[in-house]
Amino acid sequence: MKQLLLSLLTFFLYIGCTENKVASKLGNTYPDIFPDYKGISIPINIAPLNFTVRNSSHIKAVFSNNNQPLFSIEGKNKIDIPLKKWQHMLSDNTGKQIDISISVWNESYPEGIQYKSFPVYITTDSIDPYIAYRLIEPGYESWHEMDIRQRALNCFKEDIIISSNMNEKGCVNCHSFCNYSPTDFMFHARTSPGGTIIIKNNQPTKVQLSQLGSSKEGTYPHWHPSGKYIIFSTNTTRQSFYSRNPNLIEVYDLESDLVLYDLVHNTVITDPRFNGPASFETFPAWAPDGKRLYYCTTPARQLPKRLKEIKYSICSVSFNPDNGSFGETIDTIYTAHNKSASFPRISPDNQYLLFTESDYATFPIWHKEADLKMISLQGSAPVDTDILNSTDVESYHSWSSNGRWIIFSSRRLDGLYTRFFIAHLDKNKKFSKPFLLPQKDPDENNLRMKSFNIPEFIKDKITITRSQLDHTVTD
Question: What is residue 433's DSSP assignment?
């Protein structure tokens, strides 16, 4: 009993000495917080921006609007914002700027220093409530440990959709959603007896594309907005590993074509222009209205000998969803000269093409020079994306359903692991500074030794059970 009373006394003395502390020094610089949330624009329904200040013994954060304090949070070396308090602040300050003042106590400032406050802009734009993504080892040498997961963006709840542990340690990859729907999506299960798992109206089925008129299985998919078709590239992929090259891993295709899967008739449709040895076609993507198909293409080369000569352009062709046919004219939207394009994605308003640009080849996820680029589809004028990019890899990206947000993967933190960053596109078509996907514990961004891969927005939680999917995969 005495020990308990002593512990309680020590606790309350600590609280009394640390709460509402006032720093003795005013600084003229911004605090070094992780993640860097200074000057960002955020959705009205994002999770709390918890952060840390390294080597601190105590932190105090004051949130205010127009010099009127809203609330304050204190912690040892992390700021953990209560969810309800955060949500109330977002709701009460939609469309406004809040300012965050950080005071830090450490060995350099035992009496504390209060840094310059920094702004965070709460936009009037919401973001889709969930994302789906793959969690994988960063090197791609092993497929034995990977998951496709979903994450609620207004909090920190994460669930496994399908795991390689449920798939006899086989690869699960290439998920795609129809119109951001949690009840209409697909993924590949690369094991025996695996296949392409298609969930329609929350009912899963397994398809073997190679048995439906194509000799190959699908690789990179994109679901037509009508729900009637899925376009696939069929890729014969190889990897090379380097010890002295700054790009540690190179992934390339020995061949790749496009095939169209008709869900209504359970058939595969091919077009000879997109199937043949003279060229490679990959990374297909539909326009939001379903009237055009975009894809990356390059003349075939002897690989890997002439790998650095591979430069992918982005082309488009019209599409008739009534009969599954493509138009005669193929237009080049982005011409490869000294660079190569990957991952074309069209904005929901059908006005912009966002893609990844690298020096060569088609898989830029290990290319340090890879950046996000965007052009207008009304004249092909470039849009400034400099604020999105870093000195390391920017690669896969997706649009939110309202077209106001993008999420993309980047290795900018350490050059090894891909993590997700979110950026706002305002009404003037200007991107804001990207911010790291918030985590309950900000150190998880560094301590979780997995790469976040292929982020896709979804409009609600996926409710189909893991056991349903597991049964479909192994049946």
Answer: P
CB 319 within 8 A of CB 327: yes
- Specify the 3-state DSSP secondary structure of 292: strand
User: What is the DSSP pairing of strand 25-26 with strand 113-114?
Assistant: parallel
Backbone angles phi, psi at 296, to 5 degrees: -100, 145
Q: Which residues pair with 233 in a beta bridge?
A: 258
Instruction: Please report the DSSP string for 365-404 in residue order.
Output: GG-TT-EEEEEETTT--EE--GGG--SS-EEEEEE-TTSS
- Measured in degrees and rounded to the nearest 5, phi and psi for residue 421 equal -125, 145
Give me the chain's average pLDDT, please.
90
CA 442, chain centre distance (Å): 18
Collect all residues with Cβ–Cβ distance below 8 Å to 252 and sequence separation of at least 6.
237, 238, 240, 303, 304, 307, 310, 361, 362, 363
If phi > 0 it is left, if psi is from -120 to 50 it is alpha, else beta; for residue 212 that is alpha
- Kindly report, residue by residue over 288-347, the tens digit of the pLDDT: 999 999 999 999 998 888 888 999 999 999 999 999 999 999 999 999 989 999 999 999
Q: 10 Å Cβ neighbour count for 95? A: 10
Q: How far apart are CA 150 and CA 131, in angstroms?
A: 6
The candidate with the shortest Cα–Cα distance to 441, out of 140, 96, 51, 168, is 51
pLDDT 10s digits, 82-123: 999 999 999 999 999 999 999 999 999 999 999 999 999 999
Tokens representing 348? Answer: 């929901």
Phi-psi region at 56: left, alpha or beta (left = phi > 0; alpha = psi -120 to 50): beta
In one letter, which amino acid is 367? H
Element at 343 (helix H, strand E): strand 340-346
- All domains in the chain, ordered by first residue: 23-122 (2.60.40.10), 130-474 (2.120.10.30)
| Cβ neighbours, 10 Å, residue 321 | 16
Nearest 10 degrees: Cα torsion 312, 332, 213, 266: 110
* Contact between residue 342 and residue 296 where contact means Cβ atoms under 8 Å apart: yes
